[in-house]
Amino acid sequence: MKFFISLFIFAGLSCSQSTETTSNTNTMSNTTQPTPKTLHEFSVTDIEGNNFDFASLKGKRVLIVNVASKCGFTPQYKELQKLYETYGNENFVIIGFPANDFMGQEPGSDEEIASFCEKNYGVTFPLMSKISVKGKSIHPIYAWLTQKELNGKDDYNVRWNFHKFLIDENGQVVADFGSRTSPMSEEITSFAAGKS
After folding, report:
1. Which of 9, 99, 107, 154 could cross-link 66 (Cys pair, CB 3.0–4.6 Å)?
2. Same domain (yes/no): 75, 165
């Protein structure tokens, strides 16, 4: 008799634990939120205050770069513009994101930034409204660019201004390059030309 009572209690506990585990699993799956998988799922505000939908870039290769007006790397604007003039067409575009995250090197308003870029470097590639590219106030597009759980590729660390991300025609991150890499480097020009 004791054997049957013990068996009954054991079976009851096993069922109880199994139900609890299933319940936790269901709770977890219900709270998991879908995350953006491609660049094309984002929209931002451009430097003139208009909506910029990245879905419009489907089929294009994209270079995304965080820019600043008072940085030692600011002269890279000239190289970025040259890259854009050489390769920018229906297959390649550069998107600049002004950011003030590194020693206050982009303090101006969107209007001041646009004026500076046009006057000093003749920038014609698209510039977006100033955002944060790191820290607690990181913009969702940079959260996606830098976090493997969101971009599905890798974790990246934006250490300074003029960090470059290459995005393929399908809106996937393919590579990143630090500030010291010239926009006219072989790796970047090859990508822009559609050779790699």
Report:
1. 99
2. yes
**Structural domain boundaries enclosing 143:** 39-192
Active site (catalytic) residues: 71
Residues 91 and 171 in one domain: yes
**pLDDT, tens digit, for every residue of 69-90?**
999 999 999 999 999 999 998 8
Q: Are 127 and 121 contacting, i.e. CB atoms less than 8 angstroms apart?
A: no
> How far is it, in rounded angstroms, from Cα 154 to Cα 10?
46
Q: Identify whether residues 73 and 4 lie together within a single domain.
A: no
73 and 158 share a domain? Answer: yes
The model's pLDDT over 133-145, given as tens digits with 9 standing for 90+, comes to 999 999 999 999 9
Are 27 and 45 within one domain? no
Adjacency order of strands within the sheet including 92-98: 92-98, 61-67, 164-167, 173-177
> Per-residue pLDDT tens for 84-119?
999 998 899 999 999 999 999 999 999 999 999 999
DSSP string, 13-78: HHHHHHHHHHHHHHHHHHHPPP---SGGG-EEEBTTS-EEEGGGGTT-EEEEEEE-SSSTTTTHHH
Structural domains in the chain (count): 2
Specify whether the CB–CB gap between 120 and 77 falls below 8 A: yes
Query: What number of other Cβ atoms are within 10 A of residue 131's Cβ?
Result: 19
| pTM, to two decimals | 0.82
